[in-house]
Amino acid sequence: MVCNKDPEVAMHVPDGFLDAPTSLVTAAVAAVGIGLALKGARRELDDRTAPLAGLVATFVFATQMLNFPVAGGTSGHLMGGALAAVLVGPYTGLLCLTVVLVVQSLLFADGGITALGTNVVLMGLLTVVGGYAVFRAAQLVLPKRLSMVAPAAALGGIASVVLSAAAFVVLYAVGGVVPIPFDTLLAAMVGVHVVIGIGEAVITFLVVSSIVAVRPDLVHGARRVVAVRELETRLAVSP
């Protein structure tokens, strides 16, 4: 998300940006999403991949504290939704992002407490689901090789950032407390977040490609490719 260079301004949606009804609706959506993620994560995690989930949450938390300049007095930071989804799966990825956002809100005042549901929806649910959907769509088009996992993840990364920005504009149009023309806000948010999305794509590409090069079996998004390679190897050596 965007933040001003003024360190006192939060990166995430603060208290008072959206009215109470809108905040309650996003809180309900976030609660449903987290509930589904708790059930789905059981199918994604095992003894090998569970430690990776903790590392992913720690990495996203750390990198969200680091900002890079964008333009017009703003800076951006990693959201990490697509990255988490590709590495540990969409259900576990959402749980990782939720933990990060809760800690940031309660301990660092990074995002309002009453806006926690909004931030989970925008920076967790939408970035994870949207980013992973684009990643899987890219995998269907790109060659079925391990070298294509990172580029597909990068596409998911940039798409997730733009989707989150556009969703915020829609939410603000519904429940924003200060009137701002929809087209003005949309152009400003999406324009800046395309640039931020490029940074997200670069970071996502570098992290995913590094892990795939060493332990592709631990990367959730690479499992289908690894399975295909193993099947091809077995067929090649069979009499």
3D architecture notes:
This protein is mostly helical and 239 residues long. The chain has a single domain, classed as Arp2/3 complex 21 kDa subunit ARPC3 (Orthogonal Bundle). It is built from 8 helices and 3 strands; from the N terminus they run βααββαααααα. It has a 3-stranded antiparallel β-sheet, with helices on one face. The chain is globular.
List the helices and strands and how they pair.
Layout (H helix, E strand, L loop, with lengths): L1 E3 L15 H25 L5 H15 L3 E2 L4 E3 L4 H8 L1 H19 L7 H26 L7 H27 L6 H33 L8 H15 L2
Antiparallel strand pairs: 1-3, 2-3
Helix pairs in contact: 1-4, 1-5, 2-3, 2-4, 3-4, 3-5, 3-6, 4-5, 5-6, 6-7
Short recap of the structure:
The chain has eight helices and three strands; from the N terminus they run E-H-H-E-E-H-H-H-H-H-H. It has helices at residues 20-44, 50-64, 81-88, 90-108, 116-141, 149-175, 182-214, 223-237; strands spanning 2-4, 68-69, 74-76. Strands 1-3-2 form a three-stranded antiparallel β-sheet, with helices on one face.
Shape descriptor reads globular
Q: Strands of the largest sheet, in order across it?
A: 1-3-2
Structural class: mainly alpha
Question: Roughly what fraction of the amino acids lie in strands?
Answer: under 5%
Integer count of domains: 1
Instruction: Give the oligomer, counting copies of the same chain as homo and different chains as hetero.
Output: single chain
Output mean pLDDT.
87
Q: Which percent range fits the helix content?
A: over 70%
Which value, in Å, is the CA radius of gyration? 18 Å
